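Usage

Read records sequentially. Each one opens with the input sequence:
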Amino acid sequence: MNSFENGLHIKGYKNIACIDEVGRGCLLGDVVACAIILPKGLKIEGVKDSKKLSAKKREYLYNVIIENAIGYGIGRVNSKMIDEINIKESTRLAMKLAVENIVDKLGKSIRPDYLLIDAETVYMDIPQIGIIKGDDKSHGIACASIIAKVYRDKLCMDWEEEFPGYNIKQHKGYGTKEHREKLNLLGVTPMHRKSFLKRIIK
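and closes with the structure output:
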């Protein structure tokens, strides 16, 4: 899973930011992206696409990845903006913000010299490549997916407290049968993406 990163290091790139997002298909809440720069040659055992890991394993790997990273950044775009500019552009914006927010352990900003992105394009003047199913093919993108997933899951716990009754802590904003039923029973919250609800609200 390090072949993309290794090839770029051979070409002389040093600060390679690997980027992924989570929450793209949710009915509720922010889309969250992570951009992470890892040391050359680092391979963390057990890292793979966050969707293929248990919550406990993700939490463990989250801490290991953060501890070993040169730097990382988080980008968030809320439901209101998603409704205004659509989810694809919001995903790209979240990724751009994540890159702009990369800092090291001392809080110093780092500008990457190359971007490895999970199946997207980021509007920045930095060399980049979008990799289809990147979280399966790139160790760094898989690490970014884990950081983004754990970060957003923690946000879901905050949203659970703010909007009790929807069971956000369980479905994380995705369009499960329970979530759709709760929407029709309790109504739409400010956290919901109204552009996603046209065929759900009766």
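Summary fields computed downstream for this record:
- Residues 139-162 form the longest helix (24 residues).
- The first strand starts at residue 16 and ends at 22.
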